[in-house]
Amino acid sequence: MQRVQKLVLRGSVVLAGMLTAPAFAQPGNCPAPDVSAGGPSNAHTRYVETHLQPPVIKPGDKPFSLSERMRYYDVPGISVAVIHNGKLEWARGWGVRDIASCAPVTPETAFQAASISKVATALLALRLVEQGKIGLDRNINDALQSWKLPVDPKLAPNGVTLRQLLSHTAGLGVHGSGGYLPGAPLPTPVQILDGAPPANSPPVRSELPAGAQFEYSGGGYVLTQVALSDVTGVPFPELEQREVLRPLGMAHSAFDQPPSAAIKANMAFGHENGHLIEGNYLVAPELGPAGLWSTAGDLARMLIDIQAAAAGKTGHLLSPAMARQMLTPVKDNWGLGVALYPDGVPRFGHDGVNKGFLSFMSAYIGKGDGVVILTNGGDGHRLMNEVVRAISADYGWTDFAAPATEEKTLSLAQLNKAAGRFVGGGLNVVLEARPDGLYANAGAPVAERLIALSPRRFRAESLPVTVEFSPDFSSCTMIDGAPPMKLVRVEPAPPMAKTN
Description:
This protein has 500 residues and is of the alpha+beta class. 23% of the residues lie in helices and 19% in strands.
């Protein structure tokens, strides 16, 4: 559903060696769950519990504990899974499923995966391509039976393709949707595509030239959902269970909206501002882009299968050739259903934002390591970023998150190299060099200060996002805390102000 892509650039003591883990006080009035409730502990989980740091630190700063940061960021519960050497090494929860029941997060607790659902949808689509049921580069209207995308002679004279839909290059609108309260009337997929009541989102139509650019479109994934069901004659949730979830052993995952009794038996509720959201969760009938309930461990199994296939191993959901297509950029840093992180050792993954839920997963291409994190509210992005940083430090995965560092002081001339107007991925950002630093504005009343981590790397002061500029400053890419969106300079920096 709603996905944080618009940037408001808009908007302790080290205890790892101890044998007992710290108690985890929770938001609200929940007592700390028994430490064993979250799952098995080991040296790695204890490291995460005691080694969290923000991206920018001051001299002498000590690491925080996970319990401290959960309270600070107002996150009731978190679920984490780590992939190492091609296997699920550990999966564990901390905190509570909700602040009403105070039930603990366990490894089997299901969270809304939000836009991570798109990876499972893309995996299903590519599997059906290999089965000959749908074409990757044919007009999607050839596969559709229950609905047709209106022809746009100017923007999409030849229609749009499944490859374009999966890579967000089809030029379709509708970034995401707002969700529905439990018990409210739900639109059918066709009503969603037409923007017809009770749908709360506009119709899915061509808005940009097909194939010409990246423009994130959850609406395009609803269209994909309908096409996959049409070509198989099988309802989408059942199709995902048959072709993806069950074969991968994702026993605690389902595209059930509203959630099934099995999911409800151990599910997290969404929170905002220290309170349960209305209805405890929102229903997402937009299954393809946002409808998956899952656990961190189950999502790790999906990443492991893609990694193995891309490495040339057979017997997985996709052939090696198709898995490599999935992980090949189509436009900018996006493949077929996945975001691609090209710097260092290449990685792939996705993040997600539904009301009350935030999620993140990323895995290496070429080696079998990765991480999945799910949270149920609060400032989950910042907490996830610090957890990823701790895991990266523990395992030596320097590509996942930059180590914590002190702010660097740059001259006005250095800052001015990054100034100018940059566009990409639906963002239009003006960067201005000032004597006290670099400032970014994407239309907000107040510009966002960017903290210098190096001459080419900056961190937003109030948002958990790091950007890195190319060596010639012709572009910048979000490398941490956000999808790997690339923005290209379209206007040069204004003349530097003279200093006395």
